[in-house]
Amino acid sequence: MLSKEDNHLLTRTGPGTPMGDLFRLYWIPALKSDELKSDGKPQKIKLLSEDLIAFRDTEGKVGLMEEACPHRGTSMYYGINEGCGLRCMYHGWKFNTNGDCTEIPSEEGDPKFRQKIKIKSYPVKEVKGMIWTYMGPEEKMPEFPEFYWMGLPDDYVMSERVWQECNYAQVMENDLDYVHAAFLHKANGKQEVGEGILSSDLGISPDHPLVRNPPVKQDVEDTNYGKRCIGVGIGSETEHAFFEIHYIFPFYTFPPRLDGDDGMWHAFIPRDDYSTWTWDVQFSHNRPIDVQANHERRGIKVDEHFRKQINFESDYGQDRELQKTEKGNFTGIRGIAIQDHAATETMGPIVDRSKEHLGTSDLPIIHMRRLLLQQAKEIQEGKEENFKLDSGSLKTLYSAGIYASNKKSWQEAFPMKPQFKKDGQEVNS
């Protein structure tokens, strides 16, 4: 469990909070590229409790800026997007994608006044159909994180984002939890799925080692990108299944997969303290990905604001009879992502970790919390250095489990690749 003070530190990410200041030192996925059209409608987006507006100008450049006009605070969402800038509807003040004020119709006789005006804006970068931003001090901007899937052909990759109704930490903890799959995601019968696809919308086939039994052993290694979380499950009478979850500091993950499965990458970005932008990128290593099958198995349908249509108000579509039949599943809920949302959102907007009772299966979660809290406390103490991601590692990193003899330890069967080791730091067990 955590103290109430540490739980508060872990979960608050708004401007001026230690965790918020820490998160602003890393690149954040903000929107999908196809949400913005040149000279089209601006889009509202809340990130780290900041209300922002995104737009694409006449030349195709993306701007991400504070929602409030610096003149009198009117929302720029209602402005006119044309002529390489966004013009406030109230008095016609116009701003380009860099946040520079380019026109003040009411003050045309005073050009020096206009040159002093700037709306708060953030740098952006578009990669693989996603718009990323950096919200921290310019002098501390890190290298852009070039994840493995960014180097794949476009039709090998699909991405989705959804508004999740709870704090980012409990969403991310779910992703580091091996054991929940054996219950939350277990289908009662064998599932027919396409090549590389882990599950149907009911869940994972009961003979798959992720759900056949909870992993019999777990361990965690320190790395130059965060943590490598090891899970060992029973594959057969003679083999174990060795899995890995990669926690990439501070809010990215690669969930467990076996060699041959399509890969998955997640980002959990605080919208505010009580909701999260959950990003799901699925990718195939060697062929075009089956977009429809992967979308259907997740079960997420969203409205124009990216909120789920199957949600808490509808009991996540739970069918009690589905839990009892051979063609059903453990939860009675369809959609593997909906199952995750049901588990994490029903904890409440911010779970009280001072009341929890952690077990040995929670080791990866404990390690993730320790690292985040350590880094946030160093921010509190005014230390300048934060955790630096190794760019070279990210280009080759993904989760790929294996089968190997159950006579071998995980260290023998599934050792960490040398390029991921953190200099001068031993493995924590």
Automatic annotation (TrEMBL):
This is Ring-hydroxylating dioxygenase, large terminal subunit. It comes from Schinkia azotoformans MEV2011. GO terms for molecular function: 2 iron, 2 sulfur cluster binding; dioxygenase activity; metal ion binding; monooxygenase activity; oxidoreductase activity, acting on paired donors, with incorporation or reduction of molecular oxygen. Residues 27-133 form the Rieske domain. It comes from the Bacteria. The keyword Oxidoreductase applies. Keywords: 2Fe-2S, Dioxygenase, Iron, Iron-sulfur, Metal-binding, Oxidoreductase. PROSITE patterns: RIESKE. InterPro entries: Cholesterol_7-desaturase (IPR050584), LigXa_C (IPR045623), Rieske_2Fe-2S (IPR017941), Rieske_2Fe-2S_sf (IPR036922).
